[in-house]
Design brief:
By secondary structure, this protein is an alpha/beta fold. It is built from 14 helices and 11 strands. The chain has a 6-stranded mixed sheet, with helices on both faces. Strands 2-1-3-10-4 form a 5-stranded mixed sheet, with helices on both faces. Strand 6, helix 8 and strand 7 form a beta-alpha-beta unit.
Length: 306
């Protein structure tokens, strides 16, 4: 009798559990403490999981758990390595000719305004996402210049400095201003600044907080002409097609323009907090005078603020 009971229990343990949740994998390359995890992806996951009563869940895989390398994020969604992927068009600009146009320097000075413009022209934007299901796209604050050893107020200060950039657009700006552009992913900036691989970075101000750059930088020129960076949340097309009508309805209702604007607003808030945190930690905030600002604008005509 005992042996029979043991066999029944063993059989129950090895049988598949039909009550298990269906999992939708969401991959990104940042820390779980990054604002886009905390304020965008995590709330999306929690809201969707609650709405589906746990029958289907979005599970977040941060910090490259499903594959290292920020430049491979779009490919991971395209090939099905993950169901949903967060990424940055600027890392692979050749794949995103439309999004690149929104990132031209000086077009926008506010991430919410830039994001609204993207969604006002969503039919145009979606040309870059024809092979996947685009869930959201949004913008960051305009770039600032964060430097380690000296403040930047003019071209003489910038001349010969090795400056981390994200893409060819920002590389051209830095080169025209006399700096030496070095392309690196955002998650490598801290180490590069710390070791002197780069002297400065040209990036949205939220990075000061997200990557703790206030620990390795001493100056931030905050009103230098800048470009926005854009972001995406995309889903593998087969994964999207395999969802039930209810799953698609819930996910569509929680993404799109509304989620994108929430992400842009989060970046705006974090950017303001980041500059305050930098100053609290001894980073000198540099504001260019009108004369100094005009000189930078004249050197690169695209960098005109609206």
């Amino acid at each position: 009798m005992k042996a029979l009971i043991a066999c029944i229990l063993f059989a129950a343990l090895v049988q598949p559990s039909f009550g298990q949740s269906k999992e939708i994998k969401l991959a990104h390359f940042m820390s779980p403490q990054h604002p886009m995890d905390r304020f965008v992806m995590r709330p999306l996951s929690e809201s969707f999981n609650t709405a589906m009563n746990g029958s289907t869940v979005i599970k977040i895989y941060p910090a490259g758990e499903l594959g290292k390398g920020p430049t491979q994020q779009f490919k991971r969604a395209l090939t099905g390595e993950t169901d949903i992927s967060f990424g940055i068009p600027g890392y692979t600009q050749n794949l995103f000719p439309v999004m690149t146009m929104f990132e031209l320097p000086g077009l926008y000075t506010d991430p919410v305004v830039a994001t609204s413009a993207m969604w006002d022209n969503i039919g145009f934007v979606e040309q870059d996402y024809q092979r996947v299901k685009m869930l959201a796209t949004w913008a960051n604050n305009p770039t600032v210049l964060i430097s380690r050893d000296k403040p930047v107020r003019n071209f003489n200060d910038l001349r010969g400095m090795k400056v981390r950039v994200a893409n060819p657009t920002t590389a051209k700006i830095i080169k025209d201003w006399g700096g030496i552009p070095i392309t690196l992913p955002a998650n490598e900036i801290y180490q590069a600044l710390s070791t002197g691989v780069v002297d400065a970075t040209y990036i949205g101000p939220s990075a000061i907080l997200s990557f703790k750059l206030y620990e390795v930088a001493n100056f931030a020129t905050v009103n230098i002409p800048g470009a926005i960076a854009s972001f995406y949340l995309v889903m593998n097309q087969s994964s999207w097609d395999s969802l039930s009508d209810e799953e698609r309805t819930q996910l569509e209702g929680m993404t799109g323009r509304e989620l994108s604007l929430a992400a842009a607003n989060a970046y705006k808030r974090v950017g303001q907090k980041a500059l305050a945190t930098a100053e609290e930690n001894g980073v000198q905030i540099v504001n260019l005078t009108p004369f100094q600002l005009a000189a930078f604008r004249e050197r690169f005509p695209y960098a005109q603020t609206n």
